[in-house]
Write a structure and sequence with these properties.
This is Solute carrier family 25 member 3. The protein is mainly α and 336 residues long. It has 13 helices and three strands, in the order βββααααααααααααα. The longest helix is centred in the C-terminal third of the chain and has 35 residues.
């Protein structure tokens, strides 16, 4: 049986996911689960969720990066904001907003769009029962695969953003930074940070998606006093936000050392990720963690909230948390 199969009749749609029998009336959804339109709209949701949220926290991201690359000058979040306001004014807090918006919009497109693609592909590959029993591994594999491509899309803008934010006098805008970077180091200037990005973003995204999926499942099972099907769309989105914030805290911790390496690497010429890692040492890689937990926790919660809101607004299929397939229940002797 196809794990994510869609079976249609004239008046209804039947969807089976991880053994869940899901019935919806015709017209309730704008597309079929797993269709090209579904993937395209998920990608659009990713653009909004990542592009808007990362741009909104540019001031905090700027201070975080400066703490990582110059901890002697920027000793804390408050000190970082104070010095930045004193030296650059309020407008200085917005440095790097353009590459942030473009880069993370492209990353969101690939991250969320490809996650849905790989999740369905891998689930169909291993079968219905295995998809349920190994669902955490399924989420991890799908998110890692998606993030591999997402980071290639992000790398050029991330490199430009860090140059603008951490090198005083280098450039104030993307239009100034990009030609200057290309003239100095060629195309390599935009992609030398892709390996550290993979180091940072792949564990981050694996945690982001797997932790979110399992937290949603746990919230509906142990915390929410009624089944998801009986919750309003607003109540479902609140659960999404809470699960997203919990996932975000873990994401920040898991990916922070690599994030420190990326920030320093993109500031310096001729350095390698291994050289930067050795120089920072065990303590140095954790500089700026508090700022990043606040930033990533809020970001992740808002990203999932926006992404799920896009699904609700455009009436995309939103299958419920997985349940054990009946065939597996019989094998385990849980049903007669």
């Amino acid at each position: 049986m196809n794990v994510f199969s869609n079976k249609r009749c004239e008046s209804c749609m039947f969807v089976i996911k991880h053994g869940v029998f899901w019935f919806v009336h015709a017209g309730e959804y704008s597309c079929e689960y797993g269709s090209a339109h579904f993937y395209a709209m998920c990608g659009f949701g990713g653009i909004l969720s990542c592009g808007l949220t990362h741009t909104a926290v540019v001031p905090l991201d700027l201070v975080k990066c400066r703490i990582q690359v110059d901890p002697q000058k920027y000793k804390s979040i408050f000190k970082g904001f104070s010095i930045t306001l004193k030296e650059d004014g309020v407008r200085g807090l917005g440095k790097g907003w353009a590459p942030t918006f473009i880069g993370y919009s492209m990353q969101g497109l690939c991250k969320f769009g490809f996650y849905e693609v790989f999740k369905i592909f891998y689930a169909n590959l291993i079968g219905e029962e295995n998809a349920y029993m190994w669902r955490t591994s399924l989420y991890l594999a799908a998110s890692a695969s998606a993030e591999f491509f997402a980071d290639i899309a992000l790398a050029p803008m991330e490199a430009a953003k860090v140059r603008i934010q951490t090198q005083p006098g280098y450039a104030n805008t993307l239009r100034q930074a990009a030609p200057k970077m290309y003239a100095e180091e060629g195309i390599w200037a935009f992609y030398k940070g892709v390996a550290p990005l993979w180091m940072r973003q792949i564990p981050y995204t694996m945690m982001k998606f797997a932790c979110f999926e399992r937290t949603v499942e746990a919230l509906y099972k142990y915390v929410v006093p009624k089944p998801r099907s009986e919750c309003s769309k607003g109540e479902q989105l609140i659960v999404t936000f809470v699960a997203g914030y919990i996932a975000g805290v873990f994401c920040a911790i898991v990916s922070h050392p690599a994030d420190s390496v990326v920030s320093v690497l993109n500031k310096e010429k001729g350095s390698t990720a291994l050289e930067v890692l050795k120089r920072l040492g065990p303590k140095g890689v954790w500089k700026g963690l508090t700022a990043r937990i606040i930033m990533i926790g809020t970001l992740t919660a808002l990203q999932w909230f926006i992404y799920d809101s896009v699904k609700v607004y455009f009436r995309l299929p939103r299958p419920p948390p997985p349940e054990m397939p009946e065939s597996l229940k019989k094998k385990l002797g849980l049903t007669q």
